[in-house]
Amino acid sequence: MLGKRLHRKMLFYAILLLFIAWLLIEPSVSLSFRDACFLVVFLFLAQSLIEKKYLYTKLSIKYKNQSDLLNKLFLNCPDLVYRKDASLRYKDCNPVMRSMLNLNKTESIYNKTDYDFYPKKTAKIIRYYDKQVIKSGRIVSYKIEKIQPNGENKIYETLLAPVTDKSQITGVIGILRDTTQFEVLKEKLFIQNAQLESILNNMPYIVYMKDCEGRLIFCNKNLEKKVGQPQSKLLGKKFTDEYFSDSLTELNNQDRRVIETKESIVKEKQLKFFSEIPGWYQIGKSPILDHKNNVVGIIVMIKNIDNEKALECQKRNLVSTITHDLKTPTNAQLGAMNILLDGSLGKLNKEQKEMIELSKNSNIYMKNMISTILSAYKSEDTQTRVEAVFFNFYELVHLTAKEIANLAITKQQNIIILSKLVNEEIKADKLQIKRAVMNLLGNAITYGFEKTDIIVDIYDKDNHIVFNVINKGYHITDEKIREIFEKYKTNENAKFNKASTGLGLYLSKKIINQHNGKIYAKSDINNTCTFGFKIPRIFETDEIKIQEVIN
Question: What is the reported pTM?
Answer without folding.
Answer: 0.46
